[in-house]
Amino acid sequence: MVNKEYVQNDKIKDILKYIKGLKHSEMLRMMFFCSLNGMRCINFRCLQLKDVIDSNGKAKDVIDLPALKNKGKMGAQYYVNHQFKAEIETYYRYMKEKYGEKLNEESFLFASQKTKRPFNRVSICRIFHNIYKTFGIHGASHLGRHLFITNIANAGVSVFVTRLLANHKNLSTTQKYFNSTTPQLLTAVENASI
After folding, report:
1. Between the CA of residue 94 and those of 49, 64, 88, 138, 162, what are the distances in Å?
2. What are phi and psi of 44, to 5 degrees?
3. Angle between the N-to-C axes of helices 121-134 and 142-154, in degrees from 0 to 180, rounded to the nearest 10
4. What superfamily in CATH does domain 9-192 come from?
């Protein structure tokens, strides 16, 4: 599903402030950042510490996921920018404080306290839907991925590079995410003037 709605950065900041006041805010914030950095729910729901933290306790530059943690029976790579790295490291410190000796490289980032297994996708989508609904936005966990891909496209990154960053098999899938805004269209027209 491709979300039709585009959310401005100011509203994203408001959503992050809102999340601070919710129960399990640290986990929700981290899920939100996974989504905003292009991950699908199927990717981030199964993340383990070994996927995101290196042997020195630092966030990895690339999150390299095997096929079983991705859509379409193939692996996926997600490149980590400085902001996402900081979020991962903050969340890792939170997990160390909360779980202490029980924490190891096999620990899931987003697990049920009862079962210690990852949350199911439907539950995660419902959480995102309810948060977005509070702000009058129609969307779920995939909206963050949509924003990520749209922002890359709007930054002028080639559709071919965007396809790789989105882990799409087909270029036509990536093109569905390209939205245009009035300022973009006006800039394009101005650039075309003689």
Report:
1. 12, 23, 10, 31, 32
2. -80, -20
3. 70
4. Intergrase catalytic core (1.10.443.10)
Distance separating alpha carbons of residues 12 and 14, to the nearest angstrom: 5
Name the strand (E) or helix (H) holding 83.
Answer: helix 82-99
Contacts of 67 (CB under 8 A, 6+ apart): 73, 74, 75
99-111 tens-digit pLDDT: 999 999 999 999 8
Q: Which pair of tokens denotes residue 16?
A: 């992050």
The model carries a pTM of: 0.86
Give the CA distances from residue 194 to residues 156, 184, 189, 190, in Å, rounded to whole numbers and listed in that order: 22, 18, 10, 9
What residues does each domain of the chain span? 9-192
The C-alpha atoms of residue 102 and residue 10 are separated, in whole angstroms, by: 38
For the chain, the C-alpha Rg in angstroms (whole number) is 17
In this structure, are residues 76 and 65 in contact, taking their beta carbons and an 8 Å threshold?
yes
Summarised one tens digit per residue, pLDDT across range 6-43 is 788 889 999 999 999 999 999 999 999 999 999 999 99
